């Protein structure tokens, strides 16, 4: 799109140069057609972004909508569509600025009342409101938001330290330490003979509560978002590209805090890509992370990964690597109902012929 803008400017220069000459119409007419096509393309692109942004705005994710609108190409600058997008961006930034100012006032009130935990929670909620995720990881709708939050956190920590110091000084002033009286030490007594205490082993920790695997419209929306976010990486079909994308998805899933369905899809896609790319360790890592939070069959998934690695082996080296993959172990998480598409079914047992 930047090339289109440069072409348009050069074309206009030629029109001005040949103005008043017979060659003027040869440049002026095609220029109008070219500008009309650029305006039509920019309008279609802007409408698509506006529809996606509206969905995010209705869901209360204004910062995500801002990230989508900023994908509008700079080459469409000067078109009516660019003006619409700029106006919507300015409006959303003004809304977020207002929320930041309001939350800062609330935070200062909590700090003055020494309600530091509530202030920390308010800052974390504000971080979610002002940020969004893209292929680069967590981002802020405006670069200044990050500086504002970091400054607020530093001030909060300083006030917490001052409050502790004031409390310690007040306690020392109200309750001075008594002056100890000299005591004549008694001769040491031999320790009484007692039976050794039994050694108690620590009890096994209870497994953390897990949530059901998402489904329905929530799962479909998360799948569409992940497919759209990594559209270019999905187009790369080599095993190395698949393993690289799987690693990126696992890292992004671990950073995602407020989207359980999106995190589930990221782990699931990372598992499939790692298995297809021939990396058993990475696929099992995605399965373990998924099983810590969701009700899935980790041991069954690992068995399918091993089977897929064996079936997809194209060389003796790949077959040897699949054979040396770590064996699956029973998952320590409680069993979940067989709803995952990765739950294998055993083939029917053949009956031996009567002898």
The averaged pLDDT comes out at: 78
Whole-Å distance between the termini?
Answer: 78 Å
Beta-sheet strand percentage?
under 5%
Main sheet summary:
2 strands, antiparallel
User: In the residues, how many domains can be counted?
Assistant: 2
pLDDT < 50 stretches: 201-206, 328-355
Instruction: Assign a percent range to the helix content.
Output: 55-70%
Q: Give me the number of helical elements.
A: 13
Give the topology string: H per helix, E per strand: HHHHHEEHHHHHHHH
Q: Which oligomerization state do the chains in this entry correspond to?
A: single chain
Radius of gyration: 32 Å
Q: Please give the order of strands in the largest beta sheet.
A: 1-2
Shape, please?
flat
Q: Tell me the total number of β-strands.
A: 2
Summarize the helices and strands and which ones pair or pack:
Layout: H1 2-17, H2 24-58, H3 62-69, H4 80-112, H5 116-130, E1 131-134, E2 137-140, H6 143-174, H7 216-229, H8 231-234, H9 239-255, H10 260-277, H11 280-293, H12 298-311, H13 316-323
Antiparallel strand pairs: 1-2
Briefly say what this structure is.
The chain has 355 residues and is mostly helical. The protein has 2 domains: 2-147, no CATH class; 216-323.
What would you say this structure looks like, in words?
By secondary structure, the chain is mainly α. It has two domains: 2-147, no CATH class; 216-323. It contains 13 helices and two strands, in the order αααααββαααααααα. It has a two-stranded antiparallel sheet with strand order 1-2. The longest helix has 35 residues, at 24-58.
